[in-house]
Design goal:
Chain lengths: ~160, ~675
């Protein structure tokens, strides 16, 4: 469910990270959305994560400022979500989601109870402390990755 | 019949046809070029005249010479080089002159003169050329009658051609003029040829005509080729030019109908689109909706973040609007920060409203430009055709009225026009006029709401409240007329009127009674405020310590440096400043530290709910504690029940105000209350 790829930023080149939430108005899941824009994000050097918790999307995008602005404008032109709230935008020295052109968690994914709780926590935390929420999202991805590894090992 | 016999008998048909073809092609190009020349000004015109002259001149000359090669001379012929060249020059120079004269004016004199010049040019070329033919062993006899006829014919036809041309609009090559040009050249040539008789001298052997030197056909071929090349050059030039003109006309048309910044159709294009749809609605009842979209908050973004950012925002707004509209809807930029959308086939408010919702949603999202965030928003006014009107300007008017009323209700709203809007707008217009009059006449009453000490119940002060009851409307609530006064720029004046009146009346109360007067945020930004307050204190004699000025948090939000300076100067006068409606707005504690505030007034909405609502209760408790720790006085407003009073008092608010204590009183009533309180204390 996650895709690794190599991304080499120029050392010292400025990065921008942006975090917003919005409400879904359709059944459109994080998986479909993330897969749909993965290619474009990779070409633009955008990395990030998209979660869907019930009817809320939470998305982080990071990359070169221009690419982030263009991607965010595209997202703002999309009427398949509403009540878009920009929670944080900050310059960054390095990527938090450098391994994912657009990771996604949510919807129909077979999640453990623990992960489900994590998702719920992240949604509640978003309105209170945006920065910590972004870090929690990265931890969530690590947890999912560890679980996947475990599943694969068990199968092997 | 002599003429035609002559023509057929004396000429080689193939060469004559070639001459005719060159003549027709050359005249076609020449006419096109001369039309182009006439449409130009200045030097460009002379360049076009020159080109036209060369093409026309070559055409005449080539026609003549090729036709001459087709002429079967009874005796050998040789060409005099000088005269032949001279005839070519005459053709070109004369044609240039004729075309130049024709472009001078569209009047008859110009086309007549030019026609005359052109006719004479053809004639001069013809007869000069003819005199360059040396017929060996023959005598050339002229029929001068026919010579005159030939010149007259050529000149008349050329004049007719130019007259036609002067009336053409230049968009297409005028075929009539081409035919007349051809006719002028052909008529002159063949009439000229008929006027000439070659009589071989006795003893000359009559053979087929031969040209000495170069073979006749080769010469004819060379002349024809070069002439065709020149004509071709003229043709390509004029075609390229035509295409370019067409392209630039299309571009101009596009520019005239589109906004350069956003690329959207502009106001003019919108006017046409609206007129077209209105006519259809009128004729067939075809429904459509008009949405006018006005940006909120664009000016501050444009002024504060720079015009480049403002322009970028507008471009993105245009794109977002196209995303929000349905495919095929007409989106236009009709003003600086005003856009319009035409929705075809929309008959009812709800369909139009759902597009308006999308517009408001999409424009309410942030704009990330560089690393800056611009937040704007939009209001939308809607009118429906044919339901509201089918007249374009009424539809626009109705949508504007709806927009006006949606803006009045706040940011991010939409509103569909309806007739009651007109009444509301009319009421407002009348009220505005009345308010202007009242501001001049100082036609306001002041009432006083008593404030008591929470522990002793003693009367300690009053809040002055402005009342306005225009004769035509009865009492207008402050919530309606104060914002109106702010918008109309009357608030400073009205505020001072109320302050002066209240201070004067407070002079008759006991010294222990304080007076609170509200200041609008607009007044705080007015540089005349401090001197005005000082003047009122001086005029009325009220000790500054008895006056408390109430401000709201919004006053501190805008230019807070300016607000801070103003408040410091007010405090320097000796008056106190209190923060009204505390808890409702941004309630930043930093205000309390930065600004010279000596009292907080807890908003009535918390007080109302306090005893039962845990949240409000904790807010009241927090504010009360804050007051204690920062050594601020606390007044609770809007006390309506004994329970609220008890709760508030137990949490340490010093002063109380509200209906439970007393409603606002007239000056006379309040004076009575002061007197009664005084007696009570004395007793
Ligand atoms: C929740 C959500 C997340 C999105 N994330 C991205 C993204 O990461 N990258 C991107 O390019 N577009 C993103 N989009 C925008 C849509 O995919 C957008 O409609 C699409 O890129 C537009 O493509 P088009 O210009 O080819 O129509 C997102 C949209 C939504 C609703």
């Amino acid at each position: 469910m996650t895709e690794r790829f190599d991304l080499t930023d120029q050392p010292g080149a400025p990065l921008l990270r942006l975090f917003y939430t919005s409400s879904a108005i359709a059944r459109l899941g994080a998986r479909e959305l993330a897969l749909a824009c993965e290619k474009r994000n990779r070409e633009a050097g955008i990395t990030g994560v998209l979660l869907r918790v019930d009817a809320t999307y939470l998305q982080v995008i990071e990359g070169a400022p221009k690419a982030v602005a263009e991607t965010f404008e595209r997202i703002c032109c999309d009427l398949r979500h509403r009540n878009l709230a920009l929670l944080e935008i900050e310059p960054a020295d390095e990527r938090i989601f450098g391994d994912w052109s657009m990771a996604h968690v949510g919807d129909s994914e077979s999640l453990t109870i623990a992960l489900r709780d994590d998702l719920e926590d992240i949604r509640l935390l978003a309105g209170v402390n945006a920065h910590n929420t972004v870090l929690r999202m990265r931890q969530l991805l690590d947890a999912v990755r560890a679980r996947d590894l475990e599943v694969r090992n068990c199968a092997a | 019949m002599h003429f035609f016999n002559h023509l057929l008998h004396d000429h080689d048909l193939a060469l004559i046809l070639l001459a005719a073809a060159i003549c027709a092609a050359g005249c076609y190009v020449g006419v096109g070029l001369s039309q182009r020349a006439a449409s130009e000004r200045g030097t460009a015109r002379w360049h076009w005249c020159f080109l036209t002259g060369i093409v026309a001149g070559c055409t005449i000359w080539a026609t003549h010479f090729i036709a001459m090669f087709g002429y079967r001379s009874p005796v050998p012929v040789s060409l005099d080089g000088v005269l032949t060249l001279l005839s070519a020059h005459i053709a070109v120079v004369g044609s240039c002159a004729a075309v130049a004269v024709a472009t001078l004016s569209r009047r008859l004199w110009a086309s007549a003169t030019s026609g005359l010049l052109f006719g004479l040019t053809i004639a001069a070329m013809h007869y000069t050329g003819m005199s360059g033919y040396v017929f060996a062993g023959a005598e050339v006899r002229w029929d001068y009658g026919l010579v005159v006829v030939s010149i007259a014919l050529g000149t008349a036809l050329a004049a007719a051609a130019n007259f036609r041309l002067s009336g053409s609009d230049g968009t297409k090559v005028d075929i009539g003029s081409v035919a007349l040009w051809v006719a002028a050249i052909v008529a002159l040539h063949f009439t000229g040829m008929a006027s000439m008789t070659i009589a071989p001298l006795a003893g000359t052997v009559v053979t087929d005509a031969t040209y000495s030197g170069v073979g006749g056909n080769a010469l004819a071929g060379a002349i024809a080729t070069i002439s065709l090349m020149i004509v071709g050059l003229g043709l390509t030039t004029s075609q390229t030019d035509r295409r370019q003109q067409l392209r630039s006309r299309l571009r101009l048309q596009h520019q005239a109908m589109h906004d350069a910044l956003t690329g959207l159709p502009n106001r003019r294009a919108f006017g046409r689109a609206l007129a077209k749809r209105s006519a259809a609605a009128e004729a067939t009842g075809a429904a459509f909706a008009l949405l006018v979209v006005d940006l909120d908050n664009f000016k501050p973004v444009n002024d504060g973040m720079g015009h480049a950012t403002g322009d970028e925002v507008l471009k993105r707004v245009a794109h977002r609007l196209e995303c929000a509209a349905r495919p095929g809807d007409f989106v236009a930029r009709v003003g600086g920060d005003e856009f319009a959308i035409l929705l075809d086939g929309v008959r009812d408010s709800s369909a139009a409203g759902s597009v308006a919702d999308r517009v408001i949603e999409i424009l309410g999202r942030p704009f990330l430009i560089g690393e800056q965030i611009a937040e704007i928003g939009a209001c939308v006014g809607i009118s429906l055709a044919p339901h509201h009107a089918t007249n374009p300007s009424r539809l626009v008017n109705h949508a504007d009225h709806a927009l006006y009323s949606s803006k009045r209700r706040g940011k991010g709203r939409w509103q569909v026009f309806d007739d009651t809007l007109l009444e509301a707008i009319e009421r407002r217009r009348v009220l505005e006029a009345a308010l202007r009059r009242a501001a001049v006449r100082e036609d306001f009453d002041v009432v006083y709401q008593p404030i008591v000490d929470s522990s002793t119940d003693e009367l300690v002060g009053a809040e002055a409240l402005a009342r306005w009851s225009p004769a035509t409307h009865g009492a207008v609530p402050p919530a309606e007329f104060i914002p109106m006064a702010e918008e109309l720029g009357l608030i400073g004046r009205i505020g001072m009127t109320v302050l002066r009146k209240a201070c004067r009346e407070a002079m008759s109360w006991p010294d222990s009674i304080k007076l609170s007067v509200n200041l609008s945020p607009v007044q705080i930004l007015d540089p005349r405020l401090v001197s005005g307050v000082a003047a009122v204190l001086h005029e009325t004699g009220l000790p500054p310590q008895r006056l408390e000025l109430e401000i709201t948090e919004t006053a501190l939000l805008g230019d807070d440096e300016l607000a801070l300076r103003t408040l410091n100067r007010l405090v320097a006068l000796g008056v106190n400043v209190s923060l009204d409606d505390f808890g409702t707005g941004y309630s930043s504690l930093s205000y309390l530290h930065r600004f010279p505030i000596s009292r907080i007034k807890i908003d009535g909405s918390f007080v109302n709910q306090a005893p039962v609502d845990a949240n409000s209760a904790s807010i009241v408790r927090a504010i009360a504690e804050l007051g204690k720790s920062m050594d601020l006085q606390i007044t609770a407003e809007g006390i309506e029940t004994a329970a609220q009073r008890e709760f508030i008092t137990s949490h340490g608010c010093q002063n109380l105000q509200g209906f439970l204590i007393s409603r606002p009183l007239s000056e006379a009533e309040f004076s009575d209350l002061c007197r009664a309180a005084g007696q009570e204390r004395a007793a």
